[in-house]
Amino acid sequence: MRLELYIPPLKPFDVVGLGLNAVDHILVIPKYPKPDTKLSIVDYYKGGGGQVATALAALSRWGLKTKYIGKIGSDEFGEFQKQSLISEGVDIKELKKVTGARSQFAFIMVEKGTGRRTIIWDRDQRLRIEPEEMKEEVISKGRILHLDTHEVDASIEAAKIAKRHNIPVVIDAEKIKERTEELLRLVDVLISSSSFPEKLTGKKDFKKALREMKGYGCKIVCATLGKGGAIALYKDKFIVARGFKVKARDTTGAGDVFHAGFIYGMLKNWEIENILKFSNAAAAMKCRSLGARQGIAGVGEIREFIQSVRKR
């Protein structure tokens, strides 16, 4: 079953993304610490992160043209994030530096052996992106617009521009803020975390929650289920795709890579079942390495991984 959604051809960029970027400090620990104790770390890694920024990095590695819209502070972390996006081949002409502001960063405690994590983060309010900063000439240059649920006001304006140009809108739904529901009504492809459906709808029954989410007017809704894979609802049909078993070192960025996989499959006009399979595999493979981006595998590697699992 293919997703019936018009994607404009021949644009300067395959994907334009608006959302978070961050510098992640990964601290691998033997176990979660109790209060008032000391614990030695097992491993440490610093890398680029952020939902949309990481998805664009993955898509760029897979041969697509991507543009990022966002902000950094005038500090060491900001320069690190800027250079990390440049190294991935992401266009950063719309990455603005805010003088005096702190760039977003996070300390992520990852439990050795399980890959479970706890994120402690900081975002300077001066990094806020205003709706009036959205430029029609920038948004209209992409075949797909990718958003998250952090910069809601700016995302609404960006989505409205995309709609005027028949550009499909994909969202990484994680948080609920004021006007989130207004934003969702402008979305074509809604992909959420496993906890988002209940938070949004109040329904504990997963399928009922997804049906209500689809009522916002989305063409397709999907929820990631961690190692359980993913479930999507399209045309009143649920499509379940199982996850891939790997030895997880760190789950940071797995959802971001899943979103990248879904967008990649959309642009390749794959069947939904194959999109979910590819996205699950890409996300699982990422979990074998520390950080959001270090473990992003190439398209060929992902296909080989899927084939190897089939032969088992």
Automatic annotation (TrEMBL):
Residues 23-294 form the Carbohydrate kinase PfkB domain. It comes from the Bacteria. One of its GO terms (molecular function) is kinase activity. Keywords: Kinase, Transferase. Gene3D superfamilies: 3.40.1190.20. This is Carbohydrate kinase PfkB domain-containing protein.
